Amino acid sequence: MLEVQQVRAVTTTWHVMSLAILNENREDLSDRYRKGLARTWGPVRVCIAAEREKGPDILLPLYTALGRRIHVERRRTDSHIITEALEEVGLSPDLAAAATSTEFDDAVRKSHHEGMDPVGLEVGTPAIHINGMAIFGPVVTPTPRGERPASSGTAWPWSPPRTASSSSSAAGIARRSSTDKVEPVMVRPRRQGPSGPSPLW
To answer: Which H or E run contains 37?
Structure first.
């Protein structure tokens, strides 16, 4: 969506979901995967706490700060990454206490279900809401960039037809005006797990 915004008149609002909640009733998960899911609770709790304090605009910079430390720097189990990320985006490091508190769990569940329930069962991330329509995907590697992504040789499909489509978010989406709002659920795709991508955290 960040790339789409460079070439199309869309506004993206980020929204928190939880792979732990998405997969909590599955019985076919390995112990390793379950441990990974358990780690996801800390960052999503902190994201919800930050959103409550600063509003949804804080989610993208905070997610980016966390994601860089987890995926680029590979500090997945480093207990300092949350406080560092909070400080980077100008938030109090005291919000890191939310990671180990259940205070925000109901809000995490509410946010998750608002994002994922309209898409349906047996899907992971990303899920995108466009003017009341919820769709799953796309998972694209490498990230397409610019007006004509080199990987496909085609332009971003965020243009005609002129009416909304229920097809994949990478194909057949209606043309958007500057007032349209696109709300992707806030987890970027990685390697596929039992239900959706592997845990981000």
So the answer is: helix 31-54
| Structure tokens that stand for 17 in this block | 């979901």
- pLDDT above 50 (res 162): no
Q: For residue 201, is it within any domain?
A: no
Question: Are 129 and 185 part of one and the same domain?
Answer: yes
CATH number assigned to the domain comprising residue 96: 3.40.30.10
pLDDT in tens, 93-110: 999 999 999 999 999 999
Q: Distances from the Cα of 94 to the Cαs of 47, 56, 77, 88, 170, in angstroms? A: 13, 19, 19, 13, 39
Number of domains observed in the structure of the chain: 2
CB 199 within 8 A of CB 41: no
Range of the domain at 135: 1-13+125-190
Report pLDDT digits (tens) over 127-139.
899 888 898 887 7
Most confident of 112-116, 163-167, 179-183: 112-116
The single-letter code of the amino acid at 106 is D
Comparing CA positions, the residue from 13, 19, 18 lying closest to residue 130 is 13
